[in-house]
Specification:
5 helices, 21% strand, alpha/beta, 178 residues, 4-stranded mixed sheet, 29% helix
Length: 178
């Protein structure tokens, strides 16, 4: 049995890393900006498409485990638990990297979404599975995967009354040859 590290066994696509586009992080509306923004001296009022300029306040980390319908890659609960533990450990380390003055608080929202394709077998530029996955979430719409990611991140930011929101799409590749 071949053994690979988790870093190789999965693909993390952080909020649709399109060429030349930063992750789809979402700022809160002006009325919802937290004290952390005021403390940081931020006077810029970001819009729907603005991305990661600051890492302060509350950050929603959406973790979406992608499962394929009938594909060769299937998540087991112990593997999902292991990946989740590694992600949260990384967030804890990141939150502590700025010291107590940074005021970063991570909130996680975890879900599993089934898509009809096996994402690991698709070219990296094919994000149709992300479009499909986000289309299963009530209230999320958009003409393409990027628009849906922005819509979902903004929806989550509002739901959790947070300063930021971004999404990790976690795809299993345990059985993939490369």
């Amino acid at each position: 049995m071949k053994t690979k590290s988790l870093a190789i066994n999965m693909i993390l696509v952080c909020a649709l890393m399109f060429s030349g586009v930063q992750p789809a992080l979402a700022y809160p509306p002006a009325a919802q900006q937290s004290a952390a923004f005021a403390q940081a001296g931020v006077s810029y009022l970001p819009g729907f498409y603005d991305t990661s300029a600051f890492l302060v306040g509350t950050v929603v980390t959406n973790i979406i485990f992608i499962e394929s319908a009938g594909g060769g890659e299937n998540w087991s609960q112990p593997r999902k638990d292991e990946v989740f533990a590694k992600i949260t450990a990384g967030l804890t380390d990141l939150g502590g990297a700025g010291g107590m003055d940074a005021g970063v608080n991570f909130v996680t929202d975890v879900r599993t979404i089934t898509v009809s394709q096996e994402p690991i077998s698709l070219p990296g530029s094919d994000v149709s599975w992300i479009y499909d996955a986000l289309g299963t979430i009530p209230g999320v719409s958009g003409a393409d995967a990027r628009e849906r990611a922005f819509a979902f991140n903004n929806q989550q930011r509002t739901l959790f009354n947070s300063d930021w929101a971004y999404t990790l799409f976690v795809v299993d590749s345990l059985n993939d040859a490369n």
